[in-house]
Amino acid sequence: MQKNRHSMLTSLMVVSGASFIVGLIIGYPSWTICLGLIGWALLQIRQFNKLMDWFHKNDDQIEPPETTGHWGELFDELSRLQRSQRSRETLLRNIIARFQDSTSALQDAIIIIDQNNNLEWWNKSANRLLGLNDQADQGKPVMNLLRDPRFVRYYKRGQYSDPITLPSPAHSDLKIQYQITRFGEADRLLVARDVSRIMRLEQTRQDFVANASHELRTPLTVIRGYLETFLDQELPRPLIRGLSSMQQQARRMENLVSDLLLLSRLEASHQISDEQPIQIHSVIQHIMEGAEQLALEKGHKFNLDIDPLHDLSGQEIELHSAFSNLIYNAVRYTPAGGTIKISWWVDKQGGHFAVKDNGPGIESIHLPRLTERFYRVDESRSSASGGTGLGLAIVKHVLARHHGQLTIKSKVGKGSTFTCHFPTEIITARLEPEDNAYEEQKLIGFKQDPAEDNQTTN
Hints:
Elements: H1 2-26, H2 29-57, H3 69-105, E1 109-113, E2 119-122, H4 124-130, H5 142-145, H6 149-157, E3 164-167, E4 175-183, E5 187-194, H7 196-231, H8 237-268, E6 276-278, H9 280-298, E7 301-306, E8 310-314, H10 316-333, E9 339-347, E10 350-357, H11 379-385, H12 391-401, E11 405-411, E12 415-422, E13 427-429, H13 437-443, H14 450-453
Parallel strand pairs: 7-9
Antiparallel strand pairs: 1-2, 1-5, 3-4, 4-5, 6-8, 8-13, 9-10, 10-12, 11-12
């Protein structure tokens, strides 16, 4: 461009000089300079009009007009830029076409949603899985096409760390897992995957576990009945020792079957159908009635800190099972003479139930896997305690059904704290605590001295 400006200036000076010389020859230098400049200007206007005509045709396939001089250099430069632009556009078209071909080959539905929540683009699998139409649905709001209230709540909430699984709007027999990812300024990428086969396999597994566990109940009941009958009779000491061991293992098997049945029922549904107001104080009291005897045998002390004015809504049987698993785990795995603190409080974040002990603690490497089925930190210690290995898995599923979560903090040699967090939506308040002083005294019968209440574990 700088070169063209110099060429135009040179051309202007040449025309002016030539006109002046001719004017001197004929005796009219001023007139010849004016006529020369007018002619030069008309030529520039003509070339400029050619350029504008080429621009207005708006066709990248038409080459710039042929000319000479500085205008020819300008047109040649524009021609090179045009060819470079064509190459870039061709490359981009090939990339887009390859991207569309590759996404069309995917079995998962891929949908791009713009910042106004409208459908911008999707692949062919979206038509098959979600019933979208290439012509009719272009530019329509996504919530007008995927109208399931659960998907609408999931989309509006904006928390996409976990996917959501729902029936397909086009095929009721398909289960679709939706996962949304943000990109750009406010755009979203929606990936919809057919998980029907996985769901059927999971249901088959759950049915097998439930049916097998149910079928095991009857023979275990019969075995335990006969063992109790034999142990009531006069038998040799070695035989009594063997029968007692068999009775203990049969009882452990019954506990395992019960936990498997409960876990299968919890996994069958992620929603609670019959929410009821639950008095947390009463639930903890019932659990403590059974835990006190085991605590007496091991010399434990309980320290209770229960908020009597706040309860929550949910399924009492499930919460009783979750809380009892945490309390009994603390009693079993805390060495003799330990202290166990049980707390229930409510703050701005919601309700919180915590069980804290000053036992041996758990190494950090084990914490992420504690809620897995049958995962044991110490196989020998867990077997000796009579645990089934399913307690924390049950706690995790119960909390998921109540929209809560479990956090675990532990330090070797200092103890552990298991805390259940519940959202504010299910927290209920009572105006006054119930008048149950006698029951409260019974509940805190093993409470430590006030001086010990201030002691905490890490």
